[in-house]
Amino acid sequence: MTAVTEAVAQEKRRFDFAGFIQRFGTLGIFLALVVAASIWSPSFLTKPNILNVLRQVASGAGIMAVGMLYVILTRGIDLSVGSVASLGCVLSAYFIAFSGYGVATSVALVIVSGAVCGLVTGAFVAYLRLPSFVMSLAMMAIARGLSLIISAGRPIPIGDGGDALADFGSGFFLGLPEPVILMFAVFLAGGVVLNFTRFGRIIKAIGSNEEAVRLSGIAVPRYVLAVYVISGALAAVAGIISTSRTGVGSAQVGVGAELNVIAAVVIGGASLMGGRGGVINTLLGALVMGMIANIMNLAGVPGYHQQVYMGLIIVIAMLIQYSAGSLKR
Amino acid sequence: MAELARLTAITKSFGGVRALRGVDFDLRSGETHALIGENGAGKSTLMRVLGGEMAPSSGEIRLDGERVDFRNPRAARAHGIAIIHQELALAPDLSVAENIFLGDLSRVISWGALRRRAKELIDALGFDIDPARRVSSLAVAHQQVVEIAKALSRKLKIIVFDEPTAVLSTQDAERLHAIIAKLRADGVGVIYISHRLEEVLSIADRVTVMKDGQVVGTKAASDLTIDEAIRMMVGRPIAALFPEKRPRKIGAARLEARHLRSGRLVRDVSFSVRAGEIVGLGGLVGSGRTEVARVIFGADARESGTIVVNGEEARVRTPKEAVEAGVCLVPEDRKLHGVVIDAPIRVNATMARLSAVVNGLGFLKFGLERQMVTELGASLKLKAAHIDAPVSSLSGGNQQKVVLAKWFHAGGDVIILDEPTRGVDVGAKSEIYGIVLKLAEQGKAVLIISSEHQELFGLCDRVLVMGEGELRGELAPPDYSEENLLSLAFARRTQQTEGA
């Protein structure tokens, strides 16, 4: 580093507004929502309500958002997460109720099933270079169909054999619901992998410029395949959490969840063009999504109206993120 | 000659950075006014101001004596100003004809008429391109012709060429010069930005030299020599662009290509490069030079033939296998293929051998990585604010040094450089030549592809010449000349013509 050019030096002195929004925009949205909600409804900042939001996020967009972030970082998309979650939900109840494998084995099998779903999607995307949008759309239909077939369209109670799982769903650890602890653990692991390992660095680079990464002698398809496997496995975990909370496996779980998950990742500032995004902001994005739903429930907004407001709030959040992006240019 | 345009005291600041500091520039009708200077001198910014792509912070622009204030490129175009950018602005999936008339497709035009008019424009430029072809299927040289035809399809008084010949072979460059001569005869004012000084001095009437956002001087081309132009550009005398060649130890063959075949542009290519040797691969653009490099690097599929590295047959089907065998490629298109431009220098520099900076579990050792990249940067004279700065913040020459740093870090024995100094300013060019020599001195085998023949002659121990996918011959230093190189490049074609 022999010389600092004048231009760069001056650049540094200037306040980088766009960079600031990119970094802290999601935090700003999050804090603004917290303040607005606590003014609006006194019950928002109560412990039961906060735990409720966290629990909802944990079994909703939260865990899946980590997998989705990885996929989006490589410039892909995984529309199958909601369906794979329902498959995970149904399969976990099915295995526990009918197979006699026990909870631990059943859970492991379900996670593997989710990973296999991701493996199929990812193999077509990575090796045959088919568009991830279409491939994951196909997997979305297949996984939903499978969970309907397995459950015959009816909820499957996990029964007494699933007490261990139900205990996890309602249990507390360090004052937090266990699924919430699990979600934080997944985010923590996701962040460590993304920021401190070769794998994380390469998937980010692939999203920025896949060809340059390939021409650096890196086997790109393996990494692309891996992110879909991770996304599928985490979707299955989300499904298991759902089973653990309700005690039944239902094929109706996770309908439309992929959109909430994608919204969480994008509110978290990730670029759908790949290469840009972080785990902490994704967590904030998922919490924002959870809070919006919660606030509207507290405020007594009717269900159908909620969807409209949800859409509008996503638009506003996106405008904030994208104004930063366009300022950069 | 009538004055077409006069720019007075133009300044342009981006935030705190002053890209232009009071620039005066004028253009007369029917002249070629060259604009030269190192990258970042402000040439392109000045042209963007003239083309309405950027508003100046202060200063005035007069066309034919009248003050104008362009709010957007369209306003400038309406005044007859066209800019042919380095990176062409064509719609790749549309046809040639559609691209040419893209600006005024609002009227209902029959396809037949559109193509006929496009054909007329292209014919007038002396080229034969089917107007129905998709632009993406054309060679870069022909895409440029489409851009020029597009400019000619409307009123044209001023045309700016920003590094037009960087992507052209010598032959195509000459045809472009013929086009420019024709434009001048029609009274068009031509502004010509180029790093190729020889070319600039041969085609320009006047030359303006810029440095650090200011004009160093404007001179008649006939009063200027290359040495003087370089001195004005860099503000200091450059003894010679090419480092002095010291005798190197030439060892055993490191890279042997045997009967390579791939598609139309790699046809039974065999050659070898020995340790410590610098071999050039010359020929026209589109003669298969880049394709040979990509096949050896495993970036493109090989139909047949073998690649031998350090005496052992290498199974190279992907770039990964090539890198493992010790083959590196500095690709032709730096931004698309060479670097991950938004990522920091550090990330790019270690990418080809991340194993050196991770532990057994795949965790990155950041301290070690910083240290390695800092040392690499220093040894390559990389000019950057910080190794964590994104590559996009660097000049072209320094971006290229990041690509070189990547392969230094990877440590392969065979280095292939495809147009390593394209779009790189004079100072950085000379430094890159020095790096290439250093690689050879370390006992690597170096293969260089370049369209600048002087570059090949100045650096290489011998030059292989390609034409139409075949190796046409080899030149040794006593035979180095443009004529010899071109006569080899055209050899077969001439014979065929004679036979027919």
Automatic annotation (TrEMBL), chain A:
Transmembrane regions: 20-41, 53-72, 79-97, 103-126, 133-152, 172-194, 223-241, 253-272, 279-296, 308-327
InterPro entries to which the protein is assigned, alphabetical: ABC_transp_permease
GO terms for MF: transmembrane transporter activity
Topology within the bilayer: Multi-pass membrane protein
Keywords: Cell inner membrane, Cell membrane, Membrane, Transmembrane, Transmembrane helix, Transport
Subcellular locations according to the entry: Cell membrane
Classification via CDD domains: TM_PBP1_transp_AraH_like
Main location: membrane
GO cellular component, one term: plasma membrane
Pfam family, one: BPD_transp_2
Highest taxon above the source species: Bacteria
Name under which the protein is recorded: Monosaccharide ABC transporter membrane protein (CUT2 family)
Species this chain originates from: Roseiarcus fermentans
Lineage: Bacteria, Pseudomonadati, Pseudomonadota, Alphaproteobacteria, Hyphomicrobiales
TrEMBL record, chain B:
Entry GO CC: plasma membrane
Membrane-crossing residue ranges in chain numbering: none
InterPro entries reported in the protein's UniProt record: AAA+_ATPase (IPR003593), ABC_carbohydrate_import_ATPase (IPR050107), ABC_transporter-like_ATP-bd (IPR003439), ABC_transporter-like_CS (IPR017871), P-loop_NTPase (IPR027417)
The keyword Nucleotide-binding belongs to this UniProt entry's keyword annotation: yes
Example GO molecular function: ATP binding
Keyword entries, A-Z: ATP-binding, Cell membrane, Membrane, Nucleotide-binding, Repeat, Sugar transport, Translocase, Transport
Primary localization: membrane
ABC transporter domain location: 5-237, 250-493
Entry-linked PANTHER family: CARBOHYDRATE TRANSPORT ATP-BINDING PROTEIN MG119-RELATED, D-ALLOSE IMPORT ATP-BINDING PROTEIN ALSA-RELATED
Protein name: Monosaccharide ABC transporter ATP-binding protein (CUT2 family)
Organism for this UniProt entry: Roseiarcus fermentans
